[in-house]
Design goal:
The protein has 8 helices and 15 strands. It is 28% helix and 21% strand. The chain has an 11-stranded mixed sheet, with helices on both faces.
Length: 321
């Protein structure tokens, strides 16, 4: 029997991180990598982009979600970034690699541009890109707070056909059929009714999503669920079955998505995501409201993978979250 095509080479792993109480320890990221080794080792073969979000002000009392950090947190974050770089280089450096750091600066724009110019530094966040041995491992350091949405938009511009989006406070707890999922997504691209462009990995609270109140209270959502929920197989491999159900939102927690779909549906313009925005709070809530009214075609719907046990999970309380 033919082997399932290996599509991991078309996937970029995007890890987002920011000021965290556990800094300068690398425990958050190292726990993610330990879960990859246990449950999805093929992820270790992907290109990786790590986005370090920035902060806006140093204050006496921290408000991390507002970009305000204490002096101690700022100092710890600088150490954290250096520690993460060392850790990541250790994960990916081969015997043939020579670490020769290359750097360049850039900026991501958002909001409305001036009439006489396409650039307004008030509506842009600068960043520094650094690579120790080519595009296989990339670090993006924001010069001030981006927020999750702009962090992903910045990384998507450098990514391959598909992305695995990973926030720093989730780990895997069960095996992930990554290559099968990528093949399903790839083979469904030409489906005019319901291409699979986004697959969210389930947490405990979403294991019964298809029969949750969020779905069954709305006729339009019940109808789409009955039509689209089921076992999906890669083209030419009917013996491989991955259960998927429509997801009537867009979650930021670990997911696999088409880069093209991201750019078309989440970031169609610089107005779509402002500084500090979370995708699920903005695009996700808007999409959910429209889908409840039956206003969105199934071609736009994300999917949730489901099974007996949860796949991603939060780190243990001892990780400082």
């Amino acid at each position: 029997m033919d082997e399932l095509p290996q599509l991991v080479r078309f996937l970029t792993l995007i890890i987002t991180t920011s000021v965290t109480p556990s800094a300068p320890s690398t425990e958050l990221i190292s726990s993610i990598y330990e879960s990859y080794r246990r449950h999805c080792p093929s992820l270790l073969k992907c290109r990786v982009i790590v986005v370090f979000d920035g902060y806006d002000r140093v204050v006496s009392e921290a408000r991390l979600k507002k970009g305000c950090v204490t002096t101690e947190q700022a100092e710890n974050y600088s150490l954290y970034k250096e520690n993460i770089k060392k850790f990541m280089v250790e994960q990916y450096k081969t015997a043939n690699d020579t670490v020769e750091w290359e750097q360049c600066d850039g900026h991501i724009q958002y909001g409305i541009a001036d009439y006489d110019s396409q650039f307004n530094d008030q509506n842009a966040v600068g960043y520094t890109i650094s690579q120790p041995f080519g595009k296989r491992l990339t670090f993006i350091e924001a010069h001030r707070r981006m927020g999750f949405g702009l962090a992903i938009r910045t990384a998507i511009c450098m990514a391959d056909d598909y992305v695995w989006v990973q926030q720093h406070d989730w780990i895997l707890t069960s095996p992930i059929p990554l290559n099968a999922l990528l093949n399903i997504m790839q083979s469904s691209k030409s489906d005019p009714i319901a291409p699979v462009n986004y697959v969210c990995l389930p947490a405990v609270r979403t294991l019964k999503y298809a029969i949750s109140a969020e779905v069954i209270r709305f006729p339009a959502l019940r109808k789409l669920t009955s039509e689209l929920k089921g076992d999906y197989s890669p083209e030419g491999f009917p013996e491989i079955k991955i259960p998927l159900t429509p997801l009537f939102s867009w979650h930021d927690k670990p997911h696999i998505a088409s880069s093209e779909h991201y750019e078309a549906r989440v970031f169609p313009s610089r107005l779509a995501m402002m500084r500090g925005d979370f995708i699920e709070d903005k695009i996700g809530q808007r999409a959910k409201a429209q889908m409840k009214e039956g206003l969105v075609s199934s071609i736009f719907i994300p999917y949730l993978s489901f099974k007996q046990q949860s796949w991603p999970g939060k780190p243990d309380p001892g990780f400082g979250l």
